[in-house]
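User: I've been going back and forth on whether these two constructs are worth ordering. Before I decide, could you fold them both?

Assistant: Sure. I'll take them in the order you sent them. The first construct and its structure tokens:
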Amino acid sequence: AGSRAGSRAGSRAGSKFGKKSNHGGSSAARSKAQKQAKAEEDESLEDQLFAHNLEALCRLQSIRGSLCAGREMHTLMLSAAHFSIRFFECSVELANNFAQELHNKVIKDQNAAAAETATDAPKLGKKEEIEPIQIVPAFGLPVHLADWAFQDKWAWKESSLLSEIFKRAEQNGLVWSDSCTWVGHADAFSRPHLSFFNFLRLQDDLEEHGYHLWALPVLAMSFQLVSCFEGALAEAVGCLARLRMLRFASACRIRAATDGLRKEAEDILNHLPDTFSSFNEELEQVRSQRAGRAGTEVPDPDWLEVQVAAANGQAGAKVAKRVGAPWAMGELYVYQVWAELSKECLLHGELWSACTLAEEAERHANIHGDRRALRDIAITRAKLATEEGQHAEAIRCLSTLGAADIQQSAEASMLLAASYRARKQPNVSEEILNEALTAMKNAPSASKNADAGNNAGSLRRSKTNSANGGETQQVSCKQILAECMVSTTQMYLDIARLDAALVASKEWVADMHAVFDRNLHIGQYLVHAGFYRRQVQGCIDFLAAMIEVIEAKELDLSRDPKNSGILTYTYLEEFASRLCDAVLAVRDSRDAILAMTVPIEGSDQDVALPSESLLAMLDVWEARALALRRVYSANAKLDKRMKAARARLAQIASKESLMAGAITDFFGEGGQNGGKDKKGRAMTTSILDMDDEVENWLRLVDEQITEDEKISSTAREISEVEESSAKVSNAISVLQLATSFKRGGEGGEEAEEESSQTVQYPAAWSEAMAELGRLQLELAARQATLVRSAGKNPHQKVDAPVAAANRRWDESGEGKDASNPTEGPGLQVAERYSNALNGGNPMQTFEPTPPEEGAEEELSQEQPEEASGSRTAYPDEEGLLDFHHIACRSLCEAVSSALATRNFRAARRALKALALEAYGVRCPQASFEFLCWLQSVEVCIRAEEVFEELMPEDHDERVQMHQLKNLQQRWPFPEELGSYSAMKERLDLESPLFNRLQLDKLPAIEELLLSHLPAQTLVVTVQFYGNHIYVGAACSPPEGGTREERAAKMRFMAARHEVVAAEVQALVNRVTELNNRVEKELYMFPELNAELAESFQHAVDEAERHIVEPLSRRLEAHFWPCGVHAESPTNPKHLLLMPDAALWGMPMESMPSLLRLFGTRSYGSVTRDLSLHLHAQRVRGFAEISPDGAPLKAVLGVAKPSATTLLTDVFNEDSLREHEQNLPKKAETLSMLHQRLVDAKVIGNGVQSSHGGMLSSSPEDIKGMLTDATAFYSFGFGRFWTSIPSRQLASQNLSHLAFLGLFHRISNDSSFRRQTKTDSAKPLRQIAMENNYGTHLIAAFRGTLCTLMTQAPLSIPVQMRNFETFAKAMQAGKTVSKAMEEVLCQSVESSALRYARLLEGGTAQALPADAPPGPEDLLLPHMKTAYLITGSPFVSAEEPAAAGKKK
């Protein structure tokens, strides 16, 4: 009833508009003619409208709606949806009336029969006759709009009672008119071929504007339209209707109606290719007909030339004008249905079906000569080619377009721009978009200015058309949408350009503001045209893109302020404010969507509308923009204070120096008081004294400013946070509603089975939960800060989020800065070590005597409250809601759902709050685990970026992963699609990249420490955020005992070290820069430059002193109970270091502060990996994991000697220097070393191994060598990526490769030239991703277990000795770490032989007479930093089989 009421309201609105829009002429003759025509129309109509009338009205209103814009468009679309409901309602009313009349007729017949049989009985009076009974209406419409998705609730289904009623009514002559039609009548659709396309366009328009529920009755008409066709054509139309009903029902979360539709559609879709051969005869007839018209090969023209009157006004003068060919359509052909089906299959992820249908439809359209259909199919095929990464094919398909309507022009230009952008041709993309937008604006029907003040909400042309008598021409909504689509694509190209550009001048800031202005202009254009839903969606997409750019620039500003140009936090705050303005600009659209798209009578409880979910996400992004503004506002204030302090300090120093100089000149050297103060003491002036004075003054001013802000602005900020929290909570309620559905009955076994299933939340839900958790954490921090500021320590500064994090990371336990956080643990270690030396119990330490009863109370009364760090010092907090616990729970739920949907950016946002703000040192286990999760998510994000750049567009893995991502965005529950499940299963089996990204499939971190690592392995994660370095550490327990006993022995540590972000980044850059300078020097001279080596060592020592040494002291105090000099069964045996990407370039493994934990020569005891979860995934691919939590074996014999391959000097660039050529015996080259190692069986697979002296291996040859190897060595000049392009290795499956050794970074003149030429052809983004971190990441995500890489330049002779030593150690059965330890501990007879090559056969050169005596280390300190091991360092050659046993 409610839906019918709403529909009638829409009908009245449409009728009202129709009357208002009837702009007839003002003359009486024209008015009289119109009245006469209307009277003739009324005479031809019946008193009641039937099915065919209502279907025609639905088509007419739909066409009218597509030709206008604004509120008129919405009114007409809803009117069309109303008439689709009336189409069925009139049939239901007719059936009920016919049922009543048939019942009455039965009663009358019974009375007549009774009168005839009882001839002798007296006649009955009228009162005694049987009166007909009013029966209850037998048929009805679905109650709610959502009920239209259930076919079992349609009373007009085939072979139903309703059709039987109409059949009997016709037989009994109850149908009073020949024009009476109903559902199922042969004449219900007067023009079915037009109705087919009209219904599709109406459904698309309703979907565009968020009227998904109103589209369901229109889809029901499409189901009914199937009866107008026969055979394979009817089958194709029915399949399209089912697929569309499935998509709309899924969008509205009507999951109970989708199961049957999915099965029916899949069966028909799989059967459709079998019907292709049935149209061969029809195609032959069409071909012969066109042959008679001489048009067999050439399709119908796109343009026609017509004669029109000349514009000069001469009588009878005509000129030729080119116009578009009209769409003449007499019937519906099957290829037209297949073309629409291919579009729908693309949305469902059925790429094979879409390609098959598009190809067959193109073949039919060519035979029929239908160029309009060919244009549509060409765009569809271009979309399919783009989805498959075949951009050249997409460009080829679009090049066949000779004409297109304005919507097709927009789609084609965007597809071409995307294809050229993927081919690294952004300039061509911009040209295409500019030309397309210019053509649209210059089109005869283009909209140039919008009348924003039009009460009707429509856009009308600003300039008049002389051909129409000076009338203003109305603008079509399709034209407006096309222009906005192209403009939006241009805007995102500008955003990408700004993201890649450096902030060099004010032009960058001006361009940023121009982007904001353009977004507002596009939004205003859309809202005036009535595209409210598209404006809101565009706002969300714009916020996502711009926030990513702004956060990236903020990171550059904090770490590299010198290269950030004019960028300041003031500009960032301004950008964040403009983001908030962008949200405010869509308020009208938000209100319009809520008012129009939500049904008046409401919806079923299991239905969640897409428009409601969209508005929920708008609230989430609004909260995020406000949070970003709060952060940048606080940073901008701090930045201003620091600048004021520097200016004040410089001013005071300048004045004091001038005054001191003047006084010295006037009074002499002693000054005015002879250098004495008032008490006669010597008075000295120093800049440090002025610094102290300025610091004290700044502290007092800062406290005063803080107190003022607490009064003036704190309440406003808290109100903003609370309002954002409330909005996001409501948004989560809306999104959570989308997950609830009822499959069958209530209760019983079905309910229990449903409750046991894992709930799959939509992808947007994790983003909302992450934002809610962060807001709750901020609320908890502000709440606690306000309570503390009301206590007895008013001098405490109120900076809520930062202060809360500082309290949780405070290691002193008293709310004060700890000068030496390792002092207490260090004293305990020293005491245990002393007990061990004296024969006592090493684990016994001094414990203070507990106070007597009553003394504790007296002590607490004497002790000031500020010294107590417990919550009991603030009793007002006891009655407050524990937002901190609620926030942590919300954030954990966000992480869980984000990892399940691989939404790593939402997971990172939640994990940053959990790892950096939620726990700190108060709960080291939680801090360590969340730091590990955060690092793993960061690595996955970096991997997605790297492989998006390097992996070929048409690679199977990339195509399928892209499809999964698209389906997740289009469908609320993509896991219910068969295509989604099939692609995911295939990726699980074949894609190492996809397996690495599935973090949710791994067990808990505690299980990883127990079973995925050898016993007593110390895992340390080091991450750099803001002005702090965060450290989390845990040690796997020793062997022995049950799983529970070993888990109880695990130890955890968490710490935070304050640094200056710019200084840390400068140190990392300095190390990289010095390595590059050393490499240039080695081009010409084989010896290491002593001055550069000293500078390098100075930079490393400084990094060690400020970063690594504090970490080493903390680790020793926590994990070595008796110190590093005493043996203990719990001491760690191996250190797995996990620095993040910012600290990756630091050579931490060779720093003495870490080596001293295991021994100064134990280089193999310290290795690294990218993340803990990635390390576990590596191990799971090669080793068996114990289900009972037993530790991993310390040796993994998975590198088979027979499958060990060596690639040496690919381009044969090694050449001997002049002094090496003059030796008595020929010096050994790389090719000679290669052959010697192969002959000695150090390299097991000598057949597939090759060197440049034999042949120059192509990338395809190298890929073949990698395919058959379990251990692969590459030894050569330059970087590894000059031997094989990174794009090819990124597409290689290396799941079988246990070890990858890259012994490169040696150089000479020819290799330097080749390296320079190769890099000049690469984009800067690709070169940045081929750095040391990117190389290890590519190898890890393609499946390797362990990677060894040379990350610093080395001399050729030194690298040759190192490689030979390592290869022989591996061949002897040593692990990778022990083999590298042997390399780093090599010695040489004299330093004069350090840079001397070995002679042919591997013998050393004779010692020169003037050589300094005594053996020395072969490798200098700089050389020992050259090697880096990632992954599992316990890889070794495969153990030989025992005698008499088969291996």
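The second construct, handled the same way:
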Amino acid sequence: MALHFNFKIKADPVAVLGSRWHPVYPVLAVSTGEFGIAGKVSIYADEGAAIGGFTHGNASENCLTCQAFEWHPKKKLLCTGWKDGTILLWSEGEEIQEVASPHKGTPIGIISWTSSGDKVLTGDTHGVWCVWRLDRNTITQMCSNKDKDPLDGALTHVVFRSKLTDRKLNSPDEDAEGNERLMLEDEDEADLNMHSSSFGITRFNDHCMWFMGGSSGNVWGVDEDGNCSIVFNLDNQPIASLLYYVHRNGIVAMNQASSVSFYITTDGSRWVQQARFRISFGKGANAASAQMIWIGQGLLATCAHENMIRVWNIDANENYILQGEQDLRMEKLLTIAYNGSKRTIVGGTKSGKIMFWQYSGGTQSTSEEDWECLPEVRLEEPVSEVGWGPGESLISASASDSVSLLHGTSLKRRLWRTSAIIQLTPHVILYEDVVQRIVFATTSHIRVKNVDLAGSYFAAWNNKEVEVFHVQMNKAVSVGVIETENTGVALHTDKILVTRTERGISSIELYNHQLQKLSHLSIKAHEGDATHTHVNNDFLVVATSKNYISCWWIGGRAGEDKAHGYPKQLWEPGSNTSIESIAVNCAGTQIAVLAKVTDSQGQTSISTKLYINDLERDKVMVFDFATLSRTPRTICWDETEPRILACETGKYKKQGVTEVAEEEHAEVSKLEVVTLFASAKGIKLQERFPLDKNVAALIGLSVPNFYFYNKARGGTSPSETSNITSRKMRDFEGIDCTDPRVKEALLDFSYNLACGDMDAAYRSVKLVKDENVWTNMAQMCVKTGRLDVAEVCLGNMQDAKGARALREAKKEPEVEAHVAMLALQLGLVEDAERLYIKCGRYDLLNIMHQACGRWDDAIKTAEEKDRIHLRTIHYAHARHLESLGDIQNAIKAYEAAKCHGYEVPRMLYGAGLLEDLGKYTSNSNDKDVYLWWAQYCEANSQFEQALHFYKEAGDTLARVRLYCYLRDYETAMHLVTSPEHPKEDTSAAAYHLARKFEEQGKMKETLQFFRLAKAYKNAIRIARANEMEGEVMQLSLQADQATIIESAQWFEEQNMLDKAVILYKKGGELAKAIDLCVRGELFDTLQKLADDLDKETDPEVFIQCAEFFLNKEQHEKAVRMYIQAKSYSEALQVVSVSSFPMSTQVCLDRNVQLTEEMAEEMTLPKTENEDDEALRLSLLRKIAKVAKLQESWHLACKKYTQAGDRVKGMKVLLKSGDTDKIIFFTNHSRQKDIYILAAHYLQTCDWHNDPVITKHIITFYTKARAYESLSGFYDAIAQVYIDEFRDYDKALGALQDALKFMDKSKAQNRELKMGQLETKISYVEQFVEARNIVKSDPGRMVEVCRELLEVEDIEGAVRVGDVYALLVEFYTGRQEYEQAYQLIERMRDRNIILSYYLETQLVQAVYSAMGVEYKEQEHAAQSHHAAHPPPDDIPDDIDEEIDGED
């Protein structure tokens, strides 16, 4: 709880014009004045004591007032500007200085110092500005526009362009200027970037520059060099607020028309507009006096006499509003200020209240949930101006004729055992003993800043005095005052400890209760100045400015005090963390520390972490309250139990994380108390609970009770009754703890529960018979999930019902559901809800909500998570409301459950509300309601009304039934035959009417309405009874299968086989239908049946059809029937006779073509059974042979391949002559025999004209390693080169290859064939040599040729005609025609056709030269070598070979 002590300053003269805090020193300057009265500037200390004051020298006669004044940022130097343009400087201890001012005769409107304080800017209402330099404590003019053109309008606002490192967020005035950027709104940023300032470009001095705004709407920039130009204009409207945005080097300005603009610069000369928008203030707002300040990084706040603060979050691009608590929502805020160090907004209202909002969010604010509204302070008059002083606790609030100085402090209180003291005012202290019921207030003559209590003594002190009181009966007697400057005081039961710092060295002086100094304790200089002290039992702990903590034992006599452990530094002095408060436990073994942290923006806040230094283990333990969404504020140890401490905590919101627990009621405080156990096992959470709104603060902990201070209705006046309330710790509730052993056992129990050691907790209290102990342990089991311990606890609690419920819950699969049931039995509904949600058992959660009467929660959960039970829940809710007599809401619930058609009439009828039931029926559009009411009317013989509501309900059956009852059959028939709605189902009504006509013997009408009712069995029954065969047939075709079969049997009995067959087929009895066809010789019908058969048909049916088709010589159909029958065993019996399956035998005998589809259907699937596999292969070979006989080569090849006989498949495929498929099959078969067969076949093709085939031949022979055949093929290639191309060079190469492969072969006559090839190669080489030396050695050529002509078997290697041709051409070329003529004649004698070897012109030329007439030669029968024939080893008749193998 925060307290604010008010020190009021009465203005002299009456009116307060303004006030300014010094940014560093706690001094306040106040400007006062009134019409007709001279103005004055007064300087006050933080408690309202006047330090000084001054007036203008001519103020008395001219009634002059101070218009503007600003403190130097570092010195106690005040610069003031007066109505006549005079500038006066006030400095502490010096005379008032007046400087030569260029503003003479013109009111000064603005004054602004630089961040360093070396220069100051002044401006007046005529647009004249001046920059001054500070020399010591006076200022000298540097530059001014006095001699130039003055600016347009009055200068009213100014802001210094500081650098980021110059900003001090703990300076309220600089906070007001702001350092954050403005949010973009209402316009697209891309468009705004296109708008830049249209004014002249001026290069300013970045080191010293101001921005000024005035009544003309212009914003000017001015620097220390005298440069000045317009930055932008804001709609020619007077400027209301002007801020500098340091992080983006920009300016934010708002005019009195509520228009806001944001400009930035990157080069210091051109300014670009980034945002422009208008703030829509509410009705009654004063936009002309609107105030705009920065309240943190990215947060802009505005105040315009509204009941809210408008906040703009620039970073998140969001905006929201801040308002007070519920009873302060209508307060009009006139002024606001922000303390960056404390992160708190203060606002003054029209009704004289000071309101506070403290930031409790993360690093970036996104909503009003980030701010906590603190208790207000009430003043007497409207507050026109508020301001923060230096530090975190000084506030000034200006009214019309006074200034209130508010000192903020936390509630100072101290608990010792069962006694407590509380500071109420700067001088009043409340004392209360809870046990002895003693309550009184004591007044101290000193200004009290803190208090402490130990035993029957308590002390109050400030920085200069310490007053000690002794409690005697119902009053406190002042022992005396210790006048000494101090930084803190602590009380021991026997001693008073005063902390002092003198000449940079801190010490602790010890006094007795008679105020006599006993001794002192020294703190080493390197540890810093002592800042915090705390005493618990016989131990003292001290914290220093350099974050050292030291502990002493002070329980002995004077001079026996000694250090307890070693000093420890928690953080380096330069870090962003420092000590906020400390406390030591009663055993002196652990020291708890709260810290404050400073962020990068310079903002200070309490850390969410609690640090505990374990002196015995020299270890620092940490507990982060952020995990609980809390921030610790105060800490207190128990005075007898060293393990337990309590913390008062406030709200804390982590960035990006929603609030963990929002208070549902206004009565619930935002404070919580958290108790922790600290031991060697770490810091363990024991308990947490919220404080009631009337509870101001936690005073302390004394096991087993917490003690709290209640807010007295009189504010600072003590109530006549007790102001302190107590609350027992959770584990002690309902237990008598007067026995120390019980208390110790319960403490151990609580400690072990917090540590999660259920076994140790059980051992701690197993001898305690109090039921509350076992209840607490069972409740802890909900958190730990120890169901085994929970069962023991329920047994000790004698809770048979709970034990049974837990046992039943264990049937559910989720462990969380078991624990949730335990929580329910213990009344922990919230824990049960959490567990059900965790395990996703929303059905069980709904059951719990219903049992608790939380119907709205049950319905909401069902709508979102458990819609399958939504109607059930609505129905249960309706039954609940009905039991309570809440008829109207029950009707709504029944309607939501969609069962109102029956339940609502039942409920209203049962309640005797017939009139309401009639109205409900008339107003309802539900058919079920109409039906219920119609039945009610019928039961009461109100037939007309019943018929009307039956019609509204759409119940044709009921109407027909009622008309039949009334014997109006004509109307009943019309309703059935001509329904009112085309899609209306009248079958039930037709059936009822048919039964009525059957009773009357009207068979025609009976059949008609049975047919309409689709009651075909009844209609057939009537038709058969009356021998209506046609009706029976028609009706049977529409009936169900059983009825169809029954009718077919009837037709069979009547020997109407054609109709019976149709019905048997329709009923699925195909075998029976076919049997009737065979018996009745119904061939056409059987053919149609066979076409409709599918694979699902019984094989016997196919066989029966096949035999019938064979008899009728329908061979192809018979084959298909056998195939569909899959009668392979019967086929094998036939094979033993004819060597073929029955189906294939028919194919052969009856010339039925075996198609690929038929062959595939006859192919059995592969199986691992050897017999079945042998049968499959045998059948495949037989199918292949049939295909071969029918010359279906490809099909035969496929089946031989499937049978595993690829060689036979290849041989059959060769018969097809399909070269491409032969090559493909060969490549995929990869068998030697197949390679050879394929190569042999390809040699029969035109391979010498197709190089691809030649390549395949060589490849196949090579892969088959058939080198003999390959050698022969190369020999054939050589012969082709000779015969067709006369290319003996290539032929020689082919022969050499043939010799090479023959050498690799394993032929029996290999040597003989190699010899033949070598001889052949020798002849070819000689002929090639002869051709090559025709020109070089003609004689040798002639000799070689003649030798070749002498060889007898030369024709097998070299053609004789080529040898003769070479010689003839040679001699002709040498014109030796006689030799040539003789050679030609020899060729004729050997029947060599000349035209094959010699050109006809050449021969004629030879004959002409010899004088012989040339005659054409007649061709010999065979003298030319044709293409090489295929090798001898290719089979001539593949058919015979295949047949032999088969």
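Notes on the second construct follow. DSSP finds 47 helices and 60 strands in the chain. Confidence is low (pLDDT under 50) at residues 165-200, 656-668, 1127-1142, 1420-1446.
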